[in-house]
Amino acid sequence: MPYSAPLEAIKNALKFNADIDAAGATGAFENYDSDLIAPVLEEANKLASGILSPLNPTGHQNGASLKDGVVTSAPGFADAYKTFAEGGWIGLPFPEEFGGQALPKSLAIAVMEMIQGANPAFGLNPMLTFGSIEALLVKGTDEQKSTYLEKLISGEWTGAMNLTEASAGSDVGALKSKAIPNDDGSFSITGQKIFITWGEHDVTDNIIQLVLARTPDSPEGSRGISLFLVPKFFVNDDGSLGDRNTYQCIGLEEKIGIHASPTCVMEYNGAKGWLIGEENKGLAAMFIMMNAARLQVGLQGVAVCESAMQAANAYARDRKQGSAPGVQGDAAIIHHPDIKRTLVSMAATTQAARAIVYAAAGASDLAEHSTDDASKAKFKQREDLLVPIAKAWATDRGCEMANQAVQVYGGMGFMNETDAAQIMLDARINPIYEGTNGIQAMDLVGRKLASDKGAGMTAMIAEIRKTIADASTTGNGHLAIVANRLYTAAGALEEATEWMLTNMASNRSTALAGATAYLRLAGDVIGGHLLAQAAIGSIEADDSFKEKAVILARIFADETLTQAQGRMEAVSAPANLVEDAMTTLFEAIEA
Amino acid sequence: MPYSAPLEAIKNALKFNADIDAAGATGAFENYDSDLIAPVLEEANKLASGILSPLNPTGHQNGASLKDGVVTSAPGFADAYKTFAEGGWIGLPFPEEFGGQALPKSLAIAVMEMIQGANPAFGLNPMLTFGSIEALLVKGTDEQKSTYLEKLISGEWTGAMNLTEASAGSDVGALKSKAIPNDDGSFSITGQKIFITWGEHDVTDNIIQLVLARTPDSPEGSRGISLFLVPKFFVNDDGSLGDRNTYQCIGLEEKIGIHASPTCVMEYNGAKGWLIGEENKGLAAMFIMMNAARLQVGLQGVAVCESAMQAANAYARDRKQGSAPGVQGDAAIIHHPDIKRTLVSMAATTQAARAIVYAAAGASDLAEHSTDDASKAKFKQREDLLVPIAKAWATDRGCEMANQAVQVYGGMGFMNETDAAQIMLDARINPIYEGTNGIQAMDLVGRKLASDKGAGMTAMIAEIRKTIADASTTGNGHLAIVANRLYTAAGALEEATEWMLTNMASNRSTALAGATAYLRLAGDVIGGHLLAQAAIGSIEADDSFKEKAVILARIFADETLTQAQGRMEAVSAPANLVEDAMTTLFEAIEA
User: Which ranges carry the Acyl-CoA dehydrogenase/oxidase N-terminal domain (chains A, B) (predicted)?
Assistant: First the structure.
């Protein structure tokens, strides 16, 4: 099924959830004009639907391959990457100084949604490059910026993130790779990195590895890791490429999905690299990349929801099977009420996931570019709160939607060559990488909730209460019901938040046993709020999407906000029992 | 991770949910003695854990292969099948007259849970054989029975079910295969069948195909299909094997899982077959196989829950990553409260799924063998109600549990060779085959609920109310809370049932749009009821499993029964809106 971007739904989320015009109004984006949104999105959709989508099944069937250290990308991927780079798509949100277009990050997120929806294995390559660019922008020296940034931003080279080692995954502080200083100020990096996405490939002439390693006598744990820039080919003073660096891709993982994205085992044998930022401060640099990447992975979740819905919709119209009321002869399965319900529910969930991720991106723009410090702080708090929810909630929903698409396909959904199967297999990594969703939940209740005594969530709930009031005054019957459901749901979120704050202070283990359930509840309620917010805004602006926005908010409220009260109980009640139940049901845990 | 059957949990469900002793007390099972349960289960576990489990990853990596019409099974499978057959396991629930052991079906279900848990690709072969045996027992002529049944029951031959064609899946009545009568009373069968599980293989000398086809001038649709017995090799009068029949396996599907189970495209070229039962009554015979198979697939869901939980538990104890409170140095991830919560929740869901499937099997025994007609009718009603719930609810939970196991594995869960990945991939077919879960939901609200005006469900709710009363009188604190939650949940199920009955009468499309959500709610509430029932029974009998039974019921009540009220609202509210939402959100549907 060819992917085609849902331009109207994306524009609506950009306008009413990301508040892209507020970013434009800060004056920080000289090139931004709200009239630019439509042509940019249409152009990106041509690339996504015309070039990347047709390569997606090819990539699934063929995958990337490794021979003698050389990774050959799936057929067509190298050419597609060149087209993508030449379109200037990577530079969208980056400074003009380095060749970027200095547009809001939320617009870049909208473009990347299309790339990820059309071809997620392809999309991982620019996604990792973004992380490298962000890290260099913040932490790089002027020389590093002038040597590497322009080529990364133009798409001429790509970047890869080398964090994980065999015994250092979620616990990155356990890594063992070494960086020995050379006389010329560079370092010699030695060690093995695993799960390195697009760590080696043939789609660009050079690859810039960002590698975490330890310098001699560095402190133990995460306070002793430093970030290094390790190019595949050294760059001569005139910008031309010199010798090959001494590292190799020694293996590709056999994964269940994203076959066209090479997942590399990288062996660094005294490879020459340069420190990015300060020694032993690699973790901070890593979190810059990581934060950007977490939002991008949440976006992959949105893209999965959308492509799963499109596949299910197209297949349900195509597949004839049996009779249906009011249809002569064989009926397409879309005539069955159960299938309609599935599609309608998928549409609401997809837009809720999009709303959350776009709201986080919009908050990020305003956190960086608001004109006063109070606003900056407010939106930073918002961004911090939303990023783990965006990552975990949207990727979990992505897997669920993919699962539903497979179900609509029936027996064909279990066949390896179908779109539905590929979407499901590709999607399954999203809740795992860039910090498992369990880690996102710990981040939400630990770093984001407990550290500011719930101020960010309190502000969010206040905003939800404003939405409830606004919804009631629109005079729209659907939104009146949404307001009622949101009222109960906000109360549930508030109660769960209080429980969580109390227990994080007094009984941390119990609190953490409720973290995943709490994140789910928070995503449900915030998703319902954002859909209502978009519906209200669309009515006020007489937006062409307004009928859709209203029904999406209503369906989501009926399907999901109705569950909030029950979910609130399921945050705390089982959490209180987990230790006892573990002891009763399972063998003793060895220390 | 080696699979090992949870003998105590299985025995508890057999005793208190399947009520196996009540089946024994009917006198219909001469060989049955409750002291037999433990040694039978232990012996079956030796086979499952010792022989079938080690072959499971091998089967995943190698799969079955086809060359020149010959299907070669995965390494070790043929020998394992011989061991399995020699153990007499297939004959457990079948009449002694044909070499069976005439034991309750619920005991056979317990044994098959272990086979499916250890190696689902292997387990599909006997599962399909069961269906063939059931059809022959009910519909076969004496000659057919004497020629084929003993060999099927001994496991010397296997049976396969040939229903699906390219345009006749869920709508089996659309099938086009032809059966032309020969002068000798046999028929010549011609047509192509797809998705035929273990349709061709090398693990036994003969295969008995049960094939649906149309005789000349048969009525259109499902009223014109007949069932035929088509052996791979003809059977001589002395029981020896004669010529090869004229059909071929012409292809194997490339699936995402159960690679060691050959899924065959079968081409019948005038193959010789014999009618089973009456002409044009094939659908009735098919439903005998189907009903047996649906419960077996629900059982696969249980087996997936169990093997996913075992894999997650073992991996969480083995995998060291980062620190945890109270642990020196690197801690196994099982120390994290989020992982403990996952495991505890998986345990409760697994036992609930087991309870539902075993209760259906127990009802089936009593429906067939109760000593009075009223009891027979009562348990038949119970069985009919529970089968679609067992099939759909348990397989959906299986996929969820498998997904959670992958999540516990983290990045390793996305690697093709890990147990967690295999469990998830293998499990994904369960909600699809033998009638998709959407079809189970339509069966529940259409055939099972509306046809008897809800009498079966009303009887079930009355039983739930009895459990609530019993739970309150045990004096157990956990069960008092369970009783409260079950009370609310039963009310929700009652309300949803009323809505469903009203709408099935007046507004069928709306009702059907709520069918899947209704089945989910019914499974949740009945699962909670059955866990409470087992806990109460275990306390009364001072069963060694009683502490576990109580905490499982409590955890399930906290996690799942708390959701019932919200789920009830989500049955009806979105269903009422589906048509409007479909029109607003999606392109028009072509007639």
Answer: 79-156
Residues paired with residue A193 on neighbouring β-strands, in sequence order: A266
One domain for residues A223 and A248: yes
Write down the ipTM of this complex.
0.97
Q: Are residues B454 and B562 in the same domain?
A: yes
A577/B554 touch (CB, cutoff 8 Å), yes or no? yes
Token match 């509210």: residue? B573
The confidence score (pLDDT) of residue B591 equals: 66
pLDDT digits (tens, 9 = 90+) for A284-337: 988 888 888 999 999 999 999 999 999 999 999 999 887 777 777 788 999 999
Quick check: A582 and B343 in contact, CB under 8 A?
yes
Domain match, A489 and A545 both: yes
Query: What are the chain A neighbours of B563 within 8 Å (beta carbons)?
Result: 563, 566-567, 570
For residue B381, is it within any domain? no
- Residue A467 sits in the same domain as residue A566: yes
Q: Among A169, A255, A558, whose Cβ lies nearest the Cβ of B414?
A: A255
The model's pLDDT over A19-36, given as tens digits with 9 standing for 90+, comes to: 999 999 999 999 999 999
Question: A148: which DSSP letter?
Answer: I
The one-letter amino acid code at B393 reads: W
Question: Are the CB atoms for A52 and A80 separated by under 8 Å?
Answer: yes
Per residue in B301-326, pLDDT tens?
999 999 999 999 999 999 988 777 77
Q: What's this model's pTM, rounded to 2 decimal places?
A: 0.97
Question: DSSP assignment of B437-452, as one string?
Answer: HHHHHHHIIIIIIGGG
B306 found inside a domain? no
Q: Is A305 in the B-facing interface, judged by CB distances under 8 Å?
A: no
Among residues B259, B281, B303, which one ends one of the domains?
B281
* Pairing mode of beta strands B263-276, B226-231: antiparallel
Distance CA A196, CA A201 (A): 11
Same structural domain for residues A111 and A165? no
Q: Which of B154, B176, B207 is the last residue of a domain?
A: B154
Structural domain includes residue B396: no
Question: Is A337's CB within 8 Å of B555's CB?
Answer: no
Confidence class of residue A591 from pLDDT cuts 50, 70 and 90? low
A326 falls within a domain: no
